Amino acid sequence: MKLSARLSALAGASALVVGALAGAAPASAAPTGATAAPDIPLANVKQHLADLQSIATANGGNRAHGRTGYKASIDFVKAKLDAAGYTTTLQTFTSSGATGYNLIADWPGGDPNQVLMAGSHLDSVTSGAGINDNGSGSAAVLETALAVSRAGYQPSKHLRFAWWGAEELGLIGSKYYVNNLASTERAKVKGYLNFDMIGSPNPGYFVYDDDPTIEQTFKTYYAGLGVPTEIETEGDGRSDHAPFKNAGIPVGGLFSGADYVKTSAQAQKWGGTAGQSFDRCYHSSCDTTANINDTALDRNSDAVAYAIWALSGTTTTPPAGTVFENTADVSVPDNGAAVTSSVTVSGVTGNAPSNLAVGVDIIHTWRGDLVVDLIAPDGSVYNLHNRTGSSADNIQQTYTVNASSEVANGVWKLRVQDKASGDTGYINSFKLTFP
Ligand code: TRP
Ligand code: ZN
Ligand code: CA
């Protein structure tokens, strides 16, 4: 599909004329383009928590390894994923004399040699329902997987979601999975995202200090919200990312705090109560649906989806031929200050292409007067024309620019300066075409 939607010129040099790419694509949209991550509905995540609470209540108050509440939890998650079109696998193992279960859910499609995983442990301790630890991560990952299905999302990477058993006994399930993955299969896993406790009642916003790309993805999400984050320090390797990390797989994750105490500095930036632990019900019977901070759960659930989308999508171009154009005239003062025409690129994941077509249409009676630059969103300058061509008229030309080190989204400018007196002109149009 060629997207070359154009609006007629708006008044002024700052007018924006862009291709119709912004925002989340509907489920039926062509899969080649970048799509924005959906907002994960908090109500859906909370419903999963209510269901996990009911399962615990009906099974002696917990969802621990080897207990009926654990198997019921696995069955509950599996049924939702099966109905949503996932290929699910129940992996069994034995620990402390009881059968344990991991649930693996593959989303059909994507590059089988580039697998992005996200996971959470689904077991609780025996003392309670484990709604923050770790219904929260389990529910957010489940709802993100369901959102993938609802969106008909077809990323370039293959997506795999996992719910681990017996984490509370020492990362038993996730260790079992990684140890039993053939080395060829292991090599295909390009990233593992872990979510263990993300709705703590007195929350902090912690990002694992692991793979830089994954870490930055979460930080970028939170920067967009204006919420400060800190590096997770409440025990490195205390959750299911550890076996992946030990196998050399890039990992990352989010955490809202367990039994460490919130400092006054942390309470100042995040709210909540200083001098109290992030989760006073950690590993105890009061870890129920009442033990959740909705704001933290909402933000972190959206962050799960944001990261899944950002790390699995196409890394370069929107549909071939997508045009971002500004046709507003901008007069170029004779022997004067530089002027610019802008276009805003949006809805593209990752960097600009190595063969970005920059269409320049400048009407001028002496092109040898002109210096013309492309300015990337971060301010990087690419010179297109530097006073060559002497007395010839006009610059009507398409330049191919290697813009692959630039993030595609943002405001791009064509900057034109007339450096000699006598002849004058104007920018007629400026456009960027994605190959
Ligand atoms: N389930 C983990 C545990 O009981 C919770 C936890 C504590 C955690 N510290 C962490 C999870 C740091 C991630 C990162 O040990
Ligand atoms: Zn946990
Ligand atoms: Ca001039």
UniProtKB/TrEMBL annotation:
SUPFAM superfamilies per the UniProt record, alphabetical = Galactose-binding domain-like, Zn-dependent exopeptidases
* Entry keyword annotation includes Secreted: yes
Chief localization: secreted
Which GO molecular function entries does the Swiss-Prot or TrEMBL record give? Answer: aminopeptidase activity; metal ion binding; metalloexopeptidase activity; serine-type endopeptidase activity
Location(s), subcellular: Secreted
Family per similarity comment: Belongs to the peptidase M28 family. M28A subfamily.
- PANTHER family in UniProt: METALLOPEPTIDASE M28 FAMILY MEMBER (PTHR12147), PEPTIDASE M28 DOMAIN-CONTAINING PROTEIN (PTHR12147:SF26)
Name of the protein = P/Homo B domain-containing protein
Species source reads: Streptomyces termitum
